[in-house]
Write a structure and sequence with these properties.
By secondary structure, the chain is mainly α. It contains 6 helices and 2 strands, in the order E-E-H-H-H-H-H-H. A two-stranded antiparallel ribbon has the order 1-2. A hairpin with a 2-residue loop joins strand 1 and strand 2. Helix 2 packs antiparallel against helix 3. The longest helix is centred in the C-terminal third of the chain and has 29 residues. It is elongated and about 65 Å long.
């Protein structure tokens, strides 16, 4: 707002250049949108980089290294849930088996998403079983009985929740595509942790962990 001859006048944001192709100006006189013509030129440059454009502000190598770890974590989760679904036995085991199977399928979906993102960043996803356990944030622990299986899966999901929340904060605005992907995965991991907690309560009669 400014006063002219005692009257209040509202000052609106201004544009520079062609208003159809240029962004609004802020107080620092810096446009926050790139000119359309410049975007077209940039898109034609370095096309061998595929989806990586000048707007990407992340460290590509570091991001790939991180995602290879996430990929290994998801693979281990698929293997653990699948194995649990096969060998689970005892009273009330059928409903638990079904839960394990559902989680294995969802973890496989996460695995696919992460692998595709690694490919978009210009690297091959690492599916090599050699060294898989050391690359994974969670452990492959079988569990001696149904309750132990549920506990180990709950622990693994809690590890994933903590790890993925850290990664979401790390990627931030530097890599919104990877951040959004991780946010979607985190939502399901939180659901998985809650499912395992509920199963543990149902089989032990009292919640071992505070919700």
């Amino acid at each position: 707002m400014s006063k002219i001859n005692g009257n209040v006048e509202k000052v609106l944001p201004t544009r520079i250049g062609n208003p159809a192709s240029t962004g609004f100006m802020g107080r620092s006189n810096q446009p926050f949108l790139t000119d359309v013509k410049q975007l077209r030129v940039q898109a034609r440059q370095n096309i061998e980089k595929g989806a990586l454009t000048p707007a990407y502000h992340g460290d590509v190598k570091q991001t790939i290294d991180i995602l290879q770890t996430v990929l290994a974590t998801e693979i281990v989760c698929v293997l653990r849930y699948t194995m649990n679904a096969v060998v689970a036995c005892g009273l009330s085991s059928q409903s638990v088996k079904e839960e394990f199977i559902e989680h294995a399928k969802e973890e496989q979906g996460h695995m696919q998403l992460v692998a595709e993102r690694i490919n978009q960043l210009g690297e091959k996803p690492n599916f090599n079983p050699e060294g898989l356990a050391t690359r994974s944030a969670s452990q492959y622990t079988e569990g001696a009985n149904l309750v132990e299986m549920i506990k180990e899966n709950l622990i693994a999901e809690r590890i994933a929740c903590d790890h993925y929340q850290e990664l979401i904060r790390f990627f931030g605005d530097k890599d919104p595509a990877t951040r959004v992907m991780m946010e979607g995965i985190l939502v399901k991991e939180v659901e998985h942790a809650n499912d395992m907690h509920d199963l543990l309560v149902a089989h032990e009669g009292a919640p071992p962990l505070a919700k």
